[in-house]
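thoughts on both lines:
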Amino acid sequence: MKSITVEAKIENVDKVTEFVNEVLEEKECPLKVQMQLDVAIDEIFGNIAYYAYGKGSGNATIQIEMEDNPPKITLIFIDQGIPYNPLENKDPDITLDIEDREIGGLGIFLVKKTMDELSYEYVDGQNILTMKKELA
């Protein structure tokens, strides 16, 4: 397992994405999967950066683990911010016209639709969001 810890600021999303993409390229990850993971990283890390620490600041740790049979990536996002489970958000009604939809929720909805497994837990003062995606 590899990990990176960065300050939870939106300008660090590129560092996190590059860190994950280096591992994915070593494993010859399909471009479509890499793009889905990039969107998920942007959404999850962005939410941590914007909301986890309120007006304060803190860190986020991203762990990555690769499995071979079947080829799968596990990404774990950990922060010590305000307890919050984004998976409990009500999915947006995408059948409505854009002007009739409520603002927000589309990013986590996309993450839910593109990842194979998602889980959240709050343990020892930490938000832990785990995403799994098969590479094949």
Q: What stands out?
A: The mean pLDDT is 88. The radius of gyration is 15 Å. The chain has three helices and five strands. The longest strand covers residues 59-67.
